[in-house]
Amino acid sequence: MADYPPALGELISFFESLPEGERRENLIDMAAAAPACAPKEGEKFDLEDIRHDAECTDTVGVHARLEHGGHVHFAISLGPKVQTLTKALTAILCRGLNGSTLAEVLAVPQDFIPRIIGADLVRLRSQTVYYVLGRMKQAAHTLQAQLA
């Protein structure tokens, strides 16, 4: 799993090892953990991009800051109508990408998403499953441009 930051690689391996029923149960558990990915009161960020796009059912805020050594910390705020699968991917991405460099975030291929949630759910949800990753990559690109 050389293309993925180590924490994301571990999550991919974990989900791939699960039978379908357990995978869905764990996705529901991850969705319940999404509020822990929200910005904490008083927390400062270098970039805050909060908006409601057509690809998502509600507002999603991507909050990012660079920490020592050029590593990025993400927090994601979600509106109340955001769907369960998007919440699950939010928690997975925050756990899997926090502490990565901007270059590592930008290099993450999208091919891992069906490996985590299963091809059937990807087909059902179409492009919405890629939404949070795309927003996090946009934030990383913006931060990288600000450094240049």
From TrEMBL:
The lineage of its organism: Bacteria, Pseudomonadati, Verrucomicrobiota, Verrucomicrobiia, Verrucomicrobiales. PANTHER family: SUFE-LIKE PROTEIN 2, CHLOROPLASTIC, SULFUR ACCEPTOR PROTEIN CSDE. Pfam families: SufE. Residues 15-138 form the Fe-S metabolism associated domain. InterPro entries: Fe-S_metab-assoc_dom (IPR003808). It comes from the Bacteria. This is Cysteine desulfuration protein SufE. Belongs to the SufE family.
